[in-house]
């Protein structure tokens, strides 16, 4: 390449990089909300599906529980710790007591957002919830809508125990969404195949 054309090549390469569409850049999203796990009484949102025949659980955190106990949830998500504060979505999924000795739940749930800018989008969350730990970290394994191809993590802590049947968790969701994932949404152009 002659010196002049090499310079032109570098200039056009720099321009191409500088003008890369904003949509190609990944996006960081932080969400903060509260989750109400109500395992009995009026307004119940969590139902035990499996009362396990497994061994009794030794942890003081799990009185009366058995290894393998499994609960299905459709828990309300709210902006503030009060159940009456603005609803932002539902946590739909299950948790299973998967520690023989440790009070560790295997959690698998979809966070279905129903309010604000992310209404209609979902976040897939999977992870280990050792309820004896002050802060637990779970994985964001994907999502839909604004969270398509999301990766990240969730930090959650027990915010308050309203009653024996009503636990309030505080969640911080940190997700990275690749720009290309959102850009490909409905924008298939002639001659361009978005995979
Ligand atoms: C969320 O989306 C649904 C379905 O499109 C709509 O009915 C509802 O009013 C929306 N909620 C908010 C808070 O925007």
TrEMBL record:
GO biological process, one term: phenylpropanoid biosynthetic process
InterPro entries from the UniProt entry: Allene_oxi_cyc_Dirigent, Dirigent
Gene3D superfamilies per UniProt: Allene oxide cyclase-like (2.40.480.10)
Keywords, ordered alphabetically: Apoplast, Secreted, Signal
A Pfam family the protein falls into: Dirigent
Major site of localization recorded for this protein: secreted
Compartments, record wording: Secreted, Extracellular space, Apoplast
GO cellular component terms listed in the entry, alphabetical order: apoplast
Keyword Signal: yes
Signal peptide: 1-24
Complex formation: Homodimer.
Family: Belongs to the plant dirigent protein family.
Function, in words: Dirigent proteins impart stereoselectivity on the phenoxy radical-coupling reaction, yielding optically active lignans from two molecules of coniferyl alcohol in the biosynthesis of lignans, flavonolignans, and alkaloids and thus plays a central role in plant secondary metabolism.
Identification of the protein by name: Dirigent protein
Lineage: Eukaryota, Viridiplantae, Streptophyta, Embryophyta, Tracheophyta
């Amino acid at each position: 390449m002659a010196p002049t054309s090499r310079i032109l090549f570098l200039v056009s390469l720099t321009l191409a990089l500088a003008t890369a569409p904003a949509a190609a850049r990944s996006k960081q999203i932080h969400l903060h909300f509260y989750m109400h796990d109500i395992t009995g009484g009026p307004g119940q949102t969590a139902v035990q599906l499996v009362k396990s025949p497994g061994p009794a659980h030794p942890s003081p955190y799990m009185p009366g529980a058995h290894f393998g106990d499994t609960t299905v949830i459709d828990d309300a998500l709210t902006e503030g710790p009060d159940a009456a504060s603005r609803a932002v979505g539902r946590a739909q999924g299950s948790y299973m007591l998967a520690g023989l000795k440790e009070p560790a739940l295997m959690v698998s749930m979809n966070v279905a957002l129903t309010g604000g800018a992310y209404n209609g989008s979902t976040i897939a969350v999977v992870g280990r919830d050792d309820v004896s730990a002050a802060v637990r970290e779970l994985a964001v394994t994907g999502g839909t809508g604004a969270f398509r191809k999301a990766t990240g993590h969730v930090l959650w802590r027990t915010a308050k125990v309203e009653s024996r049947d009503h636990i309030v968790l505080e969640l911080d969701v940190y997700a990275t969404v690749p720009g290309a994932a959102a850009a490909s949404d409905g924008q298939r152009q002639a001659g361009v195949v978005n995979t």
